[in-house]
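Lab channel / #folding
Pinned by the channel admin:
"Please post every new chain as: sequence first, then the structure tokens as a reply. Keep commentary short and put observations after the output so the thread stays searchable."

First post following the new format, from NK:
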Amino acid sequence: MPTADPISALVIDRSPDMRGNLRAMLGQCGIEDVQPAASAAAAIRKLEERAYDLILCEYALGEGQDGQHLLEDLRTHHIIPLSTVFIMVTGESSYERVVSTVELAPNDYLLKPFTADLLYQRLARALEKRDAFLPAYGLIEIGNLQEAAEQCRLGEEKAPQYAIDFLRMRAELQVALGQADQAQETYRRVIEKKAVPWAKLGLARTLFMQKRYREAEDDLQKLVNEHSQYLDAYDWLARTREATGRLKEAQQALQEAVSVSPHTLRRLKKLGDIALDTGDMAVAERALSEVVRKGKYSDFRDPEHHVKLVKVLVAKGDREQAEKTIRDLDRSMQGLPQTQACSALSSAMLLVQAGDKAKALEALNRALEASRSNAALSNDLKIELVRTCLDNEQQEAAAEVICDVMRNTSDDRALEKAKGVLEQAGLKSMADELALKTRQDVVDLVSTGARHAESGNYEGAVDFMLQAVRKMPGNTQVGLNAALALLKLIEHRGWQEQFAAQARGLIDRARSSDPANPRIGALSTYFQNMLSKYGIQPARS
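Reply from TO:
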């Protein structure tokens, strides 16, 4: 092996014999620290306890999650560090399955049967590349993206065989830092060397960041025309069309991607949501049924997908399937904090359709009570709760929930969607009044936090703004102001890892939900300055 340090490995396979065979092969490769896991759930428990250098994962893991969905969870929820090498091991040769897995970027893909010699070659190749990137990975892990970008520049010189990969990482870091112009220059350098699809996609993403949506869409359309299997391009094409309010066309882009790779849950969730918004219940039902079927086995399962599927089934008049879906929600999502609200809301929607007003109102009141104590509910679910309130002539309760939705978003399209629910019910004046009130509430809240900081009460500013984040987790501006308060506290009171982690998490959340937000770049620079001021370096392994 190219690395001098001992390698740790996690082998994930439902077959005890195959786990034993893989362990023996790894032993022949000089890897002795090997732990087994028989399922996706067992693997996640082990990965939450410690990090591994290497994961060998069988694609077919039996009932529940397969290897692809496990990898999707690990990437989405940041369960594994960047330095972990993930290799999918499978006898699956179906094109759809292979392309779905490769899309999630495992470090390699091994088709059974294979020999210990082949495994050694693949591991040596993957670990050699991993080691070249370790300095950059370490900087990224502590949030020092600016230094990580510089480390990528140095990596191009030290390991020229990976120059294109270092350029790609540098461009991605520049995007994350809000440096659209620098990222464009880096992507163009790549295209001059080699016209790879991901560089063209990167250029389109920087145009999206600058809200140059028409130019971004033109580039993305050309990209999918030239590379019909490049699925990330379809996702960004859909996102760009959604940003300009063209939901039918966004849905079309996602459907084209799903026709190529039908097993990626993240995309199926998005397709189901957009199809609901466009009123295409047939597409919504297909997408959400698959999400519910596969997603309920995940450690990160979400009962809201059941509610959305119930909405589709109610709209179609399929009471039997709606009742079955509610029973599955209660059984498979038992114990999760959102389950009570989701189950009650689903029942209320079904009872409204059945014309049982008394029982519908009873279920609605249970949903409202549960929602008041659960800030984790999404705005989409709360909007559904508003619709159900209006269906039951509960305008006061609808106003209460819609105010919560409006406070929880700083996205214009989401705000208009919330207002639209009231307007469709003939309550336009109420919608305008509540939008004005909640906007002022957020302004007053942010101003109060700023006054704490201006008076030197940095601890008070942090406490106040973090309380605001807990009440309004979906409001990007509130989250960024909380990050600012945390960084000011660090600047004036000294480095505290807990506060730094919170600030970084809030900036990352904003970067994910609103990549074009101009404040992200400034706060990222502030964070880098604090790392430099206190000499924070990656932990040495």
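NK: The mean pLDDT is 90.
TO: also worth noting, The longest strand covers residues 85-90.
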